[in-house]
Structure formats: C-alpha cells, structure tokens
Amino acid sequence: MNSKASCLLSFALFLLFSSATSAFNITKLLGRHPNFSSFNDYLTQTQLSQQINSRNTITVLAIDNKAIASIYGKPLDMIKKILSVHVVLDYFDVQKLTMLPRKTTILSTLFQSSGATANQEGLLNVSLVNEGEIAFGSAVKGSILTAKLVSSVAAQPYNISVLQITAPIVPPSIDQAALPPKAAKSPAAVPKKSPATPPTQALSSTPAVEAPMPSQVAADAPVVHSRQGLYR
Q: Measured between alpha carbons, how far is 106 from 124 in angstroms, rounded to an integer?
C-alpha cells in the first residue's frame, strides 16, 4: 500500500470515528424547542449533556419549563442525579414503548451507570396503563408512577430519542438525602404533684368547732354606750 492510499484510509477512518462519536448533540436538539430551555440549561450546568453526547444510543425523557419548576432551588448535585434518571441507556421511541412485551418493564439509566446508586434508584419503571397510556416512575420499591408520556420531541433512529413526559421522576432516596436530620424530641416534662394537704382533723386532736352564724354573732355582741346613743 503506497503512502497516498494509506493517507486516504486514515482520513476515512477519522471521518468514520468522528461521525460515530458525535452522532448527535442534545443541546442543539433541545435548542430548537424553547419550552425545554430550563431542562436544556440544567443538562449543560450539570455536564450531563457531555455524557449524553458521548453515547451512541440513548433516550432522554425531557420536561418542559412548567413541569421542571418543581425541582427549582434544589442543590445542583441533586438535580444532576434526578436528571440522570431521565436518560435511558437504550433507544425508545413512542412506537417501541407501546410494543413492550411486558406490561411493566425496568430500564437502566445514566444514573445507574454512575455506580453511586442503591436500592434500584438508578432504574426506571415504565408501564402500560389505562388502555395504552405509558407511565414512568422510579423502580425503588414502593414508588409510584409519577409521569406520563406526552409525545416525541426529536429522534434520530437508532441513536437518540427525546420524549416529553409530564413531570420529573425523583427517586425517594435522592430527595430524602437532602432533607436535614430531624431534631430529637426532648421527653415531655412530667409535672410534679403537689403534696396533698392533710385533712384539718388530722392536724390536731382537738375536735373541730362549728363557726357561729353572722346573725348569732350580732345578737350576742355586747352593747356599747356612747354620748350620741347606743351602738353595738
């Protein structure tokens, strides 16, 4: 093989490799849809967009600006965990989801691949409900299906699919990790009982004397004379 043919082969391999590693750009795809601007900004701030673009096959469950407001104000590292749950490590468009062989299927996400998960918090539950509706939720035991599929936003078969869902999917273990520890309750003070006052008769052996009535006192009071008359 001469040098010219070798150079052409190397250039062809370079183009093939470049096209494979940059098959899509999630930031540009979402940039065409202003109602996903907040979701798109979070993907950039958390650097999840770079991880998404480095994959060959991916599905992104996007949330519009109104729905994503429920996670505003949370720490950025928590938002990264939440949004990485919205990145499925396989290609799913609407048609493929409606043809799932099982009514309930467990999907692996980008958060699961991080290796920092426990109790299935990095897995996603997708189920067919209400005669054809598709619902999503955390696969953590006891979790409920919190979001439903709205429509397809963008697709490049079979590299990337962007699907809109109605609400964020937040595994309970992620949300509880940010809650401050509960303060220990101090034991309730037990009121001290005042000593019971002993009966009067128990204080003295002298029998109690009944007090005279006011009218009797007035009748028995001595009469006192004064210069102006009599008074009692």
A: 6
